[in-house]
């Protein structure tokens, strides 16, 4: 895959989840924040997720955005939807998605919706099964949309393994 320059893309970002974490020390508690951020270019069909940790929320979001920009992947979009049904898993989080006809919109919740919006997928049915942890749902969704095949690619793979 060719090297991707972030400057060429019009990247937008969305915060999926912010967690407040605490470390107990001798004098009390030290608070910090972690932010799960999705960044992408809907026109070029690139998306990535990142996790930023810091003592203040804006700094955690900035770090998460930078991390997401480093993890951008190309998403295959077919007629503003996905090419075929797909299952994905990360930890205890399972996701299921299937293509939807034009005009349906994004039928998904939470972390999945943000990823679809920023990846350029406009029509999809999606369901999160199992864990509702945003980290697992986001990772499972990203794994799922990064492993799409077009019909021609799938036929080439089948021919290769049959011979």
Lateral strand order in the biggest sheet = 1-2-3-4
Q: What portion of residues is helical?
A: 25-40%
Count the DSSP helices.
Answer: 4
What is the class of the largest domain in the CATH system?
Alpha Beta
* Overall pLDDT metric: 86
Shape: globular
**How many β strands by DSSP?**
8
The fold-level CATH name of the largest domain is: Ribosomal Protein S5, domain 2
CATH architecture of the largest domain: 2-Layer Sandwich
C-alpha Rg (nearest Å)? 18 Å
The largest pleated sheet is described as: 4 strands, antiparallel
Low-confidence stretches: none
How much of the sequence is in beta strands?
35-45%
Condensed summary:
This protein is 30% helix and 37% strand. The protein is of the alpha+beta class and 163 residues long. The protein folds into 2 domains: 6-73, Double Stranded RNA Binding Domain, CATH 3.30.160; 75-162, Ribosomal Protein S5, domain 2, CATH 3.30.230.10.
Structure description:
With 163 residues, this protein is of the alpha+beta class. It folds into two domains: 6-73, Double Stranded RNA Binding Domain (2-Layer Sandwich), CATH 3.30.160; 75-162, 2-Layer Sandwich (Ribosomal Protein S5, domain 2). It has helices at residues 57-70, 110-119, 134-146, 151-162, and strands at 12-25, 28-41, 46-54, 73-74, 86-90, 93-99, 106-107, 124-130. The strands form two sheets. It has a four-stranded antiparallel beta sheet with strand order 1-2-3-4. Strands 5-6-8-7 form a four-stranded mixed beta sheet. A hairpin with a 2-residue loop joins strand 5 and strand 6 (93-99). The two termini are 26 Å apart. The mean pLDDT is 86.
């Amino acid at each position: 895959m060719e090297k991707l320059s972030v400057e060429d893309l019009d990247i937008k970002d969305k915060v999926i989840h912010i967690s407040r974490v605490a470390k107990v020390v001798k004098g009390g508690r030290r608070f910090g924040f972690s932010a799960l951020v999705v960044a992408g270019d809907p026109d070029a069909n690139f998306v990535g997720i990142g996790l930023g940790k810091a003592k203040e929320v804006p700094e955690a979001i900035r770090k998460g955005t930078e991390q997401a920009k480093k993890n951008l992947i190309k998403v295959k979009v077919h007629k503003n939807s996905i090419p075929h049904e797909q299952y994905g898993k990360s930890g205890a989080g399972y996701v299921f998605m299937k293509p939807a006809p034009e005009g349906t919109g994004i039928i998904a919740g939470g972390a999945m919706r943000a990823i679809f919006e920023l990846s350029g997928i406009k029509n999809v049915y999606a369901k999160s099964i199992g864990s509702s942890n945003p980290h697992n749902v986001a990772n499972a969704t990203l794994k799922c949309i990064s492993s799409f095949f077009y019909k021609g690619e799938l036929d080439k793979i089948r021919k290769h393994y049959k011979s």
